[in-house]
Design goal:
Radius of gyration: 16 Å
Strand order of the largest sheet: 1-10-9-8-7-4-3-2
Order of helices and strands: EHEHEHEHEEEEHEHEHH
Number of helices: 8
Shape: globular
Number of strands: 10
Strand content: 15-25%
C-alpha cells in the first residue's frame, strides 16, 4: 500500500490552523497527526479538544490524536467527541494499559457511528519494545518516538531504527495488521532508512510545514531515495 504520511500540526502556523489543515489535506496526505501535551508528561503545553473540534471541519482525513498526558483515560472521551478517529496513548503514562486500550476500542467514531475508534500505543526512546508484546494484538498502530517528546525540530535518535525493526518482527511473528508509525526528526534524509526498518507511517512536522515546497516535501517523504 506504500508509505503513509501524517503531518504533525505542531509545526503548523497556529494563527491560521484551520487553513493549514485544509491545505495539507488537499495535498494527498493520509492522516492529520495532533500532539496533545499537558506540561506534565512532557515539558510543553499544546492544545485541547476545543481546538480539535474547531479544525475538524477543515479535513475529512483521519485525526490521530496523540495524547502525551498523564492519566490519559481521564480525557479520551472528550477527544473522541471532538473528532478523533485514532487515540494514541503512551505506555509510560498508563499502568492499566490493556484495560484502557479496550475502553478506547469500545467507542464509536463521532464522525461515523459505523466505525469504532482506532487505538495506538506510543513508546519513548528509553522504553523497551518488549512492553508491547502482551498487548500488540489489540493495537491498530504502534507509535515509536524517535526523539524525546515535547518539542518540535529535534534530531532523530538513530538507535530507534533497531526498535522499529524489533516491533516489525513482533508484528510479523503474530501475523498482525498493526501499523508502525514513527515520529520525531523524520525527514527526506532519513525516511528511506526508517521505512526500510519497518515503518508504515511517517509523522513529520518541520519537514513538511517549514518546507519551501510543501507538495515536494510530502512526495520526498513518500518516495525517499535509497
Amino acid at each position: 500500500m506504500g508509505i503513509k504520511i501524517a503531518p504533525s500540526i505542531l509545526s503548523a502556523d497556529f494563527a491560521k490552523l484551520g487553513q493549514e489543515v485544509r491545505k495539507i489535506s488537499d495535498l494527498g496526505v493520509d492522516y492529520i497527526h495532533i500532539d496533545v501535551m499537558d506540561g506534565n508528561f512532557v515539558p510543553n503545553i499544546t492544545i485541547g479538544p476545543g481546538v480539535i473540534s474547531a479544525i475538524r471541519k477543515y479535513s475529512n482525513l483521519p485525526f490521530d490524536v496523540h495524547l502525551m498526558v498523564r492519566s490519559p483515560g481521564d480525557h479520551i472521551e472528550s477527544f473522541i467527541n471532538a473528532g478523533a478517529d485514532i487515540i494514541t496513548i503512551h505506555a509510560e503514562a498508563e499502568i492499566h494499559l490493556e484495560r484502557l486500550v479496550r475502553k478506547i476500542k469500545s467507542y464509536k467514531n463521532a464522525n461515523n457511528t459505523k466505525k469504532t475508534v482506532q487505538v495506538g500505543v506510543s513508546i519513548v526512546p528509553s522504553t523497551s519494545p518488549s512492553v508491547l508484546e502482551y498487548i500488540i494484538h489489540e493495537l491498530d498502530i504502534v507509535l515509536i518516538m524517535a526523539v524525546n517528546p515535547g518539542f518540535e525540530g529535534q534530531e532523530f535518535i538513530h538507535s530507534q531504527l533497531y526498535k522499529i525493526a524489533v516491533v516489525k518482527k513482533m508484528i510479523q511473528k503474530y501475523n498482525l495488521k498493526t501499523q508502525i508509525s514513527v515520529d520525531g526528526g523524520v525527514s527526506a534524509l532519513n525516511a528511506a532508512n526508517i521505512t526500510k526498518a519497518g515503518a508504515d507511517i511517517l509523522v513529520a512536522g518541520s519537514a513538511i510545514f517549514r518546507a519551501a515546497n510543501t507538495k515536494k516535501a510530502i512526495n520526498d517523504l513518500r518516495n525517499p531515495l535509497l
